[in-house]
Amino acid sequence: MTFRSTGVTPQSTGNFDLRGDLTIKGTTKPVVVQVHPTGALQWEGTAPVNRKDFGITHDAFSDRAIGDKIDITLKISAVPGLPN
Fold first, then answer.
1. Least CB-packed of 22, 33, 40, 57 within 10 Å?
2. Pairing of strands 27-39, 2-10
3. Residues 19-46, buried b or exposed e (16+ Cβ, 10 A)?
4. How crowded is residue 76: how many other Cβ atoms within 10 Å of its Cβ?
5. Tens of pLDDT along 30-52?
6. pLDDT in the model for residue 82
7. Residue range 12-38: average pLDDT?
8. Beta strands per DSSP E along 1-84
């Protein structure tokens, strides 16, 4: 699984929406992660996604027992001084 940021929109609350492309099992979809600060140069956010949109399935019984909507959580740490 990879996430590549494509933009950020600050919110009046101090949080922000982090837009990006989420790739799981070779399928890429745009997502928006609502991010909040958790410490100095650290943020965390969650985005709901439909697992079947990314080809995450199992057998018929498991697919009925497991919900389609899952939450992806990102934990972000910035390292000062690294090149972009």
1. 40
2. unpaired
3. ebebebeeeeeebebebeeeeeeebbbe
4. 16
5. 999 999 999 988 999 999 999 98
6. 67
7. 94
8. 2-10, 16-24, 27-39, 42-50, 69-77
Domain boundaries, the chain: 2-77
Q: Which residue has the tokens 């745009």?
A: 30
Q: Which fold has domain 2-77?
A: Lipocalin (2.40.128)
Which tokens go with 40? 């100095």
pTM of the model: 0.79
The candidate with the shortest Cα–Cα distance to 54, out of 19, 31, 25, 74, is 25
- Give the sheet arrangement for strand 69-77, strand by strand: 2-10, 16-24, 27-39, 42-50, 69-77
Of 26, 12, 24, 15, give the one whose Cα is nearest residue 76: 15
56-69 pLDDT per residue, tens:
888 777 777 888 89
Q: What angle do CA 4, 77, 16 make, to 5 degrees?
A: 65
